[in-house]
């Protein structure tokens, strides 16, 4: 269940980041409430994952994959540009997360 909790936490992290953009500085009620719920859900499910994972591994994977997912969805939903340099950086983040997982056995 540890990795399931972390996966859910990552989804909440992505929802939080994308939702923050939709709040328009927390001036829109519904997106603001949903964003705060996503933030709380992400922190809660991350805390469940950290019962079994080292914080250095869990937090790094949470922020790294969450950030990469935010970039991909930001490009799709908000038409944000992804350069080749950015792609290399995201591949490094994902590769680092995978290596952390492999070394945390």
TrEMBL record:
The entry's keywords: Cell membrane, Membrane, Transmembrane, Transmembrane helix, Transport
UniProt main location, coarse: membrane
Cited Gene3D superfamilies: 1.10.3730.20
Pfam families referenced in this protein's UniProt entry, alphabetically: Multi_Drug_Res
Top-level taxon of the source organism: Bacteria
Similarity comment: family membership: Belongs to the drug/metabolite transporter (DMT) superfamily. Small multidrug resistance (SMR) (TC 2.A.7.1) family.
Protein's name in the database: DMT family transporter
PANTHER family attached to this UniProt entry: GUANIDINIUM EXPORTER, SMR FAMILY PROTON-DEPENDENT DRUG EFFLUX TRANSPORTER SUGE
Bilayer disposition of the protein: Multi-pass membrane protein
InterPro entries cross-referenced by the UniProt entry: EmrE-like, Small_drug/metabolite_transptr, Small_multidrug_res
Cellular compartment(s): Cell membrane
Regions crossing the membrane: 29-50, 57-78, 84-102
Source organism (scientific name): Microtetraspora fusca
């Amino acid at each position: 269940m540890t990795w399931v909790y972390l996966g859910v936490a990552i989804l909440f992290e992505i929802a939080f980041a994308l939702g923050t953009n939709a709040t328009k500085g927390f001036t829109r009620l519904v997106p603001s409430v949903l964003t705060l719920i996503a933030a709380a859900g992400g922190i809660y499910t991350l805390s469940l994952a950290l019962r079994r994972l080292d914080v250095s591994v869990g937090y790094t994977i949470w922020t790294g994959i969450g950030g990469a997912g935010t970039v991909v969805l930001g490009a799709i939903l908000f038409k944000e540009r992804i350069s080749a340099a950015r792609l290399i950086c995201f591949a490094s983040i994902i590769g680092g997360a995978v290596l952390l997982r492999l070394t945390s056995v």
